[in-house]
Structures are given as structure tokens and as C-alpha cells.
Amino acid sequence: MYAFKYHRAKSVAGASGAVAKNPDAKLLAGGQSLVAAMKLRLAHPEELVDLGAIKELAGIKVTANTVTIGAMTRHAEVAASAEVKKAIPALASLVESIGDRQVRNMGTLGGSIANNDPAADYPAGLVGLAATVNTNKRKIGADDFFTGMYETVLEPGEVITSVAFPVPKRAAYMKFKNPASRFAIVGVFVADTGSGVRVAVTGAAPVVFRVAEMEKALAAKFAPESVASIKVSADGLNSDLHAKADYRAHLITVMARRAVESALHTR
Ligand SMILES: Cc1cc2nc3c(=O)[nH]c(=O)nc-3n(C[C@H](O)[C@H](O)[C@H](O)COP(=O)(O)OP(=O)(O)OC[C@H]3O[C@@H](n4cnc5c(N)ncnc54)[C@H](O)[C@@H]3O)c2cc1C
Predict the structure, then answer these.
(1) Ligand 1 centre distance from Cα of residue 48 (Å)
(2) Is 252:186 a contact under the CB 8 Å cutoff?
(3) Looking at the chain, which runs of residues are DSSP E strands?
(4) What 3-state DSSP class applies to 216?
(5) Could you identify the atom of ligand 1 that is nearest to the CA of residue 114?
(6) Is 2 helix (H, G, I), strand (E, B) or coil?
């Protein structure tokens, strides 16, 4: 590690102003990605602006139609929330599957989606549920938020404040995980929203994506057999020591089928 300035922000406006005025400053949430990147010298911010003391960024609000989670809400709190489990059990179970206890106790929703690791779980939940990302400047639909590997539409000085997840009719998330990190080799979130079906895939490609053919088939009949023979092309999928592209393509169909089965049994 090397020397850097540390600033504990007291408000969202203060945090936003501090990173806007210094291009070498970074927001700090739970440090689960950022501090690790700094230790490896992959990131070397001159200043860290800690969001941890801004109370309004943490917490969960549930209404009949929406679950709103503050950006600084730790994964452990979302996974344990009785209200989230009741409203969107698929979301609670997705968050429960993230990393290990230490990671879930420190990692946050805002940090996860701002970082946009291609194997992260939350992006599938956001896109699958057609969530809205609220920042200090605007509202962004999940379909428009994730733009590439570790890239989002966030601008300098823009702070994620919360994410609003519409409550679906039924949904489920299935992940084939890396046994060491528990990141998704392939994760598929399927949601029957009441006004359509959404299928979002993480881990398989540089950025989360939807599978239109599966969505169409499931809208016609929400059943595992509707997706069982739909094959996703391996072109452009990730290929690494954990899984080759054609294996990931195969896993998308398997995880989608299992997610539909699970959604039928949950709600
Ligand atoms: C061992 C290990 C295993 C893991 N396994 C999984 C897994 O299975 N699945 C999974 O999905 N994830 C996994 N993670 C990632 C983890 O879930 C964290 O959410 C993720 O690392 C982000 O960490 P953080 O919330 O502490 O954010 P930080 O590391 O503090 O920040 C990450 C980035 O987000 C920016 N940022 C933070 N908050 C905001 C905000 N409110 N607005 C704008 N920008 C912001 C920061 O500037 C930084 O660039 C794992 C991590 C580790 C270390």
C-alpha cells in the first residue's frame, strides 16, 4: 500500500463535490474491490472519499410494489432482511450467494454495481428485475446502466444513492459459481414481471446481457421446457481458465431452465 488522503464525507453532496474536484479521488464503500485493487497497485487514487458515515445511503425500504435498497447497504443486511425475502425472495437469495461472510459484511450494493465486475451477481438482479439506479443526479434504467467490462454510465462526481427493484410476479436466480471466489461463472436471473418476462445473464460475457429468445418463449409459456432447447451462441462469450466460451453457452441454458423451475416453486 502507499500513502493517500482519506476523507470521511458527511453528505452525498460533499462526497460528490470531493470526487468531482479531484480526478484522482475515488469513492470508498466497503473497500472489497477498491482496496484489493490498491494493494495490487492496479488502482492508485490520491484520495479516498469514504461514504460510510452518510446515513441516508444505507437501509432498505419495502412497499407493495418496490424494494428500494440504499447504495451503502451491506450484502449481509439484504440477505438477512425478512422484508426482502418476502417481497423478492430471488433477490435475497442472489445476495446470499455473494462471496463469503466477510465479503457480505463489508460489500455494498453501490460498490458492486459501480465496479461492474463481469462475474458479479447484482447486475443480473438489476437487469432481470428492470430496476432503476438512483444517483445524486438522475435515475438510470438497469438496461442502460452497465455498458462494458468494469464500465457503467456513471459520470465523474456521480454517486449512486439507491436502487429501486420492482416486485415481480415470480423470479429466481441460478448461478454456477466459481468454487473459490463464488463469483458467477454463469448466473441467470429470470423474472416474470407481470408485464413480460426478463432473462438476464452475468458471468458469461464482458457485461450482463438479456436473452430475447428465452424471454419470448417464456412469455408464451412460463415453463422449464420453453428454454431447455434454446442455445445461446458462444461467440463473444468469456473464455478463461475457469470455463471455455462453449461451456458457458451451455451453462446459460442449464441455469435458465433451473431458474424457471425454481421461480415456479417460489412465487
Ligand atoms: C473474495 C471476494 C469474493 C467475492 N465474491 C463475489 C461474488 O460471489 N459475487 C459478487 O457479485 N461479488 C463478489 N465480490 C465483490 C463484492 O460483492 C463487493 O460488492 C464488490 O467487491 C464491491 O465492493 P464494495 O462494495 O466494498 O465497494 P468498493 O470496493 O469500496 O468500491 C468499488 C467501486 O465502486 C465505487 N463506488 C462505491 N460506492 C459507490 C457509490 N455509491 N456510487 C458510485 N460509485 C461507488 C468505488 O469508487 C469503486 O470504484 C467478492 C469480493 C471478494 C473480495
Answers:
(1) 15
(2) yes
(3) 5-8, 25-28, 47-50, 60-62, 66-70, 132-135, 139-141, 146-148, 151-152, 160-166, 170-177, 184-192, 197-202, 209-210
(4) helix
(5) 34
(6) coil
- Whether residue 124 contacts residue 189, with contact meaning beta carbons closer than 8 Å, is answered with yes
Rg of the chain on CA atoms, in Å: 18
Give first-to-last CA distance, the chain, whole Å: 48
Cell 451462441 sits on residue: 233
Question: Closest residue (by CA) to atom 3 of ligand 1?
Answer: 99
Calpha distance 60→165 (Å, rounded):
11
- Parse the chain into domains and list their residue ranges: 1-54, 170-266
Q: What is the pTM of this model?
A: 0.97
- Taking the CA of residue 154 as reference, the ligand 1 atom at the shortest distance is 43
| pLDDT, tens digit (0-9, with 9 covering 90-100), for 26-77 | 999 999 999 999 999 999 999 999 999 999 999 999 999 999 999 999 999 9
Rounded CA separation 74/71 (Å): 8
What are 178-219's pLDDT values in tens digits?
Answer: 999 999 999 999 999 988 999 999 999 999 999 999 999 999
Q: Whose CA is nearest to atom 8 of ligand 1?
A: 183
Ligand 1 binding site (Cβ under 6 Å of any ligand atom): 26-34, 36, 51, 71, 75, 98-99, 103, 106-108, 110-112, 114-115, 120-122, 154, 159-160, 181-183
Domain 170-266 belongs to what architecture? 2-Layer Sandwich (3.30)
Three cell numbers written together for 46: 490520491
CA of 225 from ligand 1 middle (Å) equals: 36
Q: Do domains 1-54 and 170-266 have the same CATH topology?
A: no
CATH topology of domain 1-54: 3.30.43
Q: What is the number of other CB atoms lying within 10 angstroms of the CB of residue 246?
A: 12
